[in-house]
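ugh ok fine here u go
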Amino acid sequence: MIENSGLENSCYSVELVMKFVAPTLSNTARDVRDAATKITLLMYRQYGDPVRKFLPKDEPILRKKQLIWKKMFESFDEIDGKPVHKPNEATAEDKKSGSGKPL
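structure:
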């Protein structure tokens, strides 16, 4: 429904959907988390930043400690057209220090 027609002509809102979906991103069942991730990404593609207010703040420490948030925020970055650092890619900091790509 979200992907095909959005929420405009329904009784649902970004707030209603995200209040239901956001807590399930931490569910212990992988299938539940995967479904919640898919819905969250669909919502972000359709509605953008309002989705973020239902999620933890995007901070480097969170991306580092919890894989689900790393993947989620990197997906948001891709949707927004921002560069996303790949694990085997040298960062600007690596290039400055001359360390280049990891071996």
